[in-house]
Fold these 4 entries.
Entry 1:
Amino acid sequence: MTTLVQRWRAHSSLTALAGFAVAAVLLFAVAPAVLSDFRLNLLAKFLCFAIVAVGIGLAWGRGGMLTLGQGVFFGIGAYIMAMHLQMADAARLGNDVPEFMEIAGIRELPSFWRPFASAPVALLGILILPALVAAALGYGVFKRRVKGAYFAILSQALAAALAILLTGQQAIGGFTGLSDFRAFFGFKLSDPVNRRMLFFLAAGTLLVVVALVRQLMHSRYGELLVAVRDQEERVRFLGYDPANVKIVAYVVAAFFAGIAGALFTPIVGIISPADIGVVPSIAFLIGVAIGGRTTLLGPVLGAIGVAWAQTAFSEEFPSGWTYLQGVLFIVVVGFVPAGLAGLWPMMKGLAEGRFRRPVAPAAAVAVETLPEPATEKVESR
């Protein structure tokens, strides 16, 4: 039995390595060769969404936590990166404050901007702050055993509150947000070579994130996370604290979202409250649901597919795309809970059930094959 398990694990590892090799070839060789600079930059944007989707797949698909507020952590990473890039541009031009502050009449740099002028501090903030916020929120929510729709509403309200707060703050761009970044850690963003470097950075980050989540899924923690999703009370009876298990998954998802937001800022060139509110958070979730939240690659493919469809169809149907997106989410959640990744197993099962020859129940066969009881003949005298 042990030998069979070892062989299965070895085969699974080889399959995963082959999949990563194919993905690396597609991202690092095929895509730059066949796509224009504009399309490649657009794909880099989609890869940022895919990084967020991988974390949602871990928290929602494996942990059962309907995270409707990932825009919060995405926005924290994005705004920290934007603040650093703005101050770096201002220092390069010899200005005390960024240009948008001068236009708004702000002559002194706000105190909460100053730490992020340092590149190491900004990078640490991108990695740590989203995780800290998620840990604090998760501790307050999961320790009180808040779950299901209540947790989803709470996380969505947090995203809405952050978007409203940022809209009213002129010190961080207000409604228009932060934009017009000239360089990324010394590399000019107007140079097409540096734009490709950002694509490679996003692609490499996505591969690393997928590899980390796969390791988590196949670890003892991954099994415990699924057990908490399916039978939380039994896990508690066995001596584990389900809240701690959920907090870890929630923090990991926030960590990935913060990194994705930091990459999104220089790739797209702008970050605003419209990119981190309720609507973007739901869009992240729709991509994961359509792709298949319980699988490893389903969230990645779903996020990229939905983002591409939004870009392609919203130009022709600007008012109808939102409704189509909502209909897709309802259809997938209601009729195909496993997403597109579960269509093939479902169709295969239906086909096998349709063409399989009916087998008579064993009890009925036994009854039919039993010999008839012998009847005694009573001779009349």
Note: The longest strand covers residues 178-179.
Entry 2:
Amino acid sequence: METNATYILQIPEADNNLLHALAKKFGWTAKKQKPQHITRLDKAIKSAHEDELFETNDIDVLMKSLKE
């Protein structure tokens, strides 16, 4: 049983046909992946993991930080 490896390549759009031709010739699979959209929730979770939390007792400061 042969194992497969997954690679992520960034290539110019002009070379897209070349990549697909090579993939077909060698029996590889080439799929285009949509760019991942990072949501505010994802950013908040990342900040929590990196201990970059925001703390305040002033509602005005809190509201201002939410608008940024």
Note: The radius of gyration is 22 Å.
Entry 3:
Amino acid sequence: MKKNYLMLIMAALLIAPSLAEAQEARYRVGVCDWMILKRQKLGEFQLAKTLGADGVELDMGGLGQRVLFDNKLRDAGEAAHFKRVADSLGVAVGAVAMSGLYAQDLTQRDNYMDLAADCFDTMDRMGGVKVAFLPLGGCGNNWTTDREKRIKVVKRLHDIGEAAKKRGLVVGIDTPLDAKGNKKLLKEVGSKGIAIFYKFQNVLEAGADIAKDIKALGAANICAIHASNTDGVWLQNDKAIDMQAIKQVLDQTGWKGWFFVERSRDTTMVRNVKMNYGANVRYLKRVLGCPESEPAVKLDSAGRDPQYVETIIQRSQKATDQLGITYTEEGQSVLNIVCNKYFKLNDIYAERDSLKKTDKKLAEAQCDSKLYRSHFDFDADLSMYLKPQEIETVKDVMTFNVVKVTYDAHCDMIPSLTNEEKQQIMAWLIEARELAVDAESSKKKHEVFGKYKGRINNYLTRRGYDLAKEREQWYERMKSRK
């Protein structure tokens, strides 16, 4: 009897989902494919995975003056291909969007049911997606108060909603209304196939508090969430959005579903898709408690002082920031490779200093041998994720960009340098950088470059340049530029 009881407990533990799995099923984070510049492109699934997203909100394609959306997934074979790629990468299609209606007036589209049917068919082809997005922006700013136009909007939404309900789907609408206004609108529409595709930006523009508005609207009326504001700063830096309060309300209401990042791009790097969307996805996942994918390369931080580790992470992140990949899966692995390089150097030099007390010659020999091996290991590790030029960028950041600064300075100081001389200067500076990467401190790194700068000066002097005179004239030119 006792044995059977234990077996039942073990079976229950195997069947029961883990806490992480349960949390993932409740909240999932995706990106809008038209905003990451991958509208109906196969590359959207790999990019979403790179960004750490669980899925995408796939768009129906442009509309403009067309009769139907520019929808390549109307073709069953093309849709099947898209689904295979998405499934192979473990990336879900969380919703299908009719974003073309951001700029097209629904009340002026007499074939609105054909547009909806096209969307519903695409949802089926992509594996039974249950939520569609229908923005009402194209209806203008006055449809909520213009009685005649509102009646027309309501009628068309009712028709679309009933068609969606028959197919087991829901259409989420994007409105400029607050909770009270949205509840009134949904009552007028009178269809279970229509809900609110909640958008932070709209609520903020209406002057409402997001958490309070969600609570007033109710979980049953929200089918999905566009978790972003206008472009300006990332979500984590947006003081108008209290994600902790929003999560608390959603937890209390029992809501579950998809969060999609549409905007909230940092305007200082608005075109950097990976940095903007990677940062927002990562932030949302952490606040919502969603599982995050582990980087392939682990951080060798065990047994190290936490403050030292944090300093190294901040130093190393300058390289991934420069590459624009910090908040991506590959970026996290590259970050850890750079951090581990610093840790390895610290270990090698610490071991050298300890051994010096008993055998200085052996200590230096052993140190040189380990530095040699680790130098090539570093390049090999980075080559798994970066192109050769990107590896150069990492090394430049680690050596304070001295190669470029010094090379540019010499070219500016001596405009008459030949191509051969420029190539020689660059070759020595790159050689210096390879040595400086392995130096034990910033002071030692600069000392390495100092030696090579001396070699360059001697070379230029032998070539007949009067460096004192060239430098004096250079200073005068810089003064005149100012």
Note: The longest strand covers residues 27-32.
Entry 4:
Amino acid sequence: MAKVRIYLRKSLTFVRIISVTPLSLPPAVSTISPFSSPFYVLAKSAGSRCNLSCAYCYYLEKSKLYGQGEAQVMDDAMLERFVRSYIEAQTTPSVLFTWHGGETLMRPLSFYRRAVALQRKYAAGRVIDNCIQTNGTLLTDEWCRFFRDEGWLVGVSIDGPQPIHDHYRRTRSGRPSFVQVMKGIEMLRRHGVEWNALAVVNDLNVGDPLGFYRFFRSIDCHYLQFTPIVERLQPHADGRRLAAVDEAGAGGMLPMSVTPEAWGTFLCTLFDEWVHHDVGQCFVQLFDSTLANWMGQPPGICTLAPTCGHAAALEWNGDVYSCDHFVFPEYRLGNLREQSFVEMMYSERQRAFGQAKRTTLPNRCRQCPWLFACNGECPKNRFLHTPEGEPGLNYLCKGYRQFFSHVAPYMDWMKQELLHQRPPAAIVSLLQRDPHAFD
């Protein structure tokens, strides 16, 4: 039976279904049956409210879309409407709730206790899972006991060693946050709460992939996701500064953004460390998803899938957007007070949004030998023109081409192991015997 592992990332929480050798995979948190066209919703329970003011955050400015006089947090009426409507819209015996921010713990614990009570009220026999993303600074023993008792999976945002993390991830008053995050992680461990790490790769940590990866290994992190900063500057009348994919980005790149070349070197260097030491011990989201694409299986991560549009963002007031990275007025699907999730998520507009990931690929991508592994990556990053003048080229293309070319022989080998029902973690012992086996 297929096993499901829930992973967290800032732009999307996703469920991956894998039916290969269990020894090669992380432990399951639930089992579900297949379905043809699932959708998920990232609920912004605290809107863009946050106790940190990370210099690169793409979400803090979303408060400018709404009146400044409002609290901009999900109230009890919207919470109940969301829980009931979301469960009723699902077609499977298992339902995943994903809580994002801003900072989710800016809402009191009583809010989430009420969410759990409502889930039980409307479950109608379904199995309910919850996962939540937090910066970790507000965790307490009481929070951790709740997560443990209710079986919630917690994603913690941390960017690496203290000097790197504290450079951009500071409080609104400018104080560093690393020490508080590590205290939060220790509390999660002490209470037996399952947690994942989410790191943002920026212009600083991208230059030290080994230090970055070894830090997470040193804190006994077994599930790691990282996402690169790729943001452009575009002033808006309401004060927002970041560009949507179809805007000019007249102000250039956000200074914290990675370059394609640095991204490629980062991935290759980190992969070499992982494949020589940690396959089967540390599960790196991007590498796991790449292997899935090599196997011809769904990668479980929207950025590497052929199409997208199955994970919307729900704002505190009921506004629904096509994707968490597309919370711009032109991508607003409607409001939950006026339309159902089914009407919005299965609308022609949202279907077109998801299919555009495939249909708008330039010829350069369609002819690329790595198309099966990349699928054009995230549409939000596809704002360049090809050398032939076609729009839609991914900003990170050069880096991904370097990465896929580098990992190909390793992926080929692990694919064969899986096809023969053997755990791909055996690659570690192979490389220990012959470090140059794939040179």
Note: The CA atoms of residues 167 and 176 lie 8 Å apart.
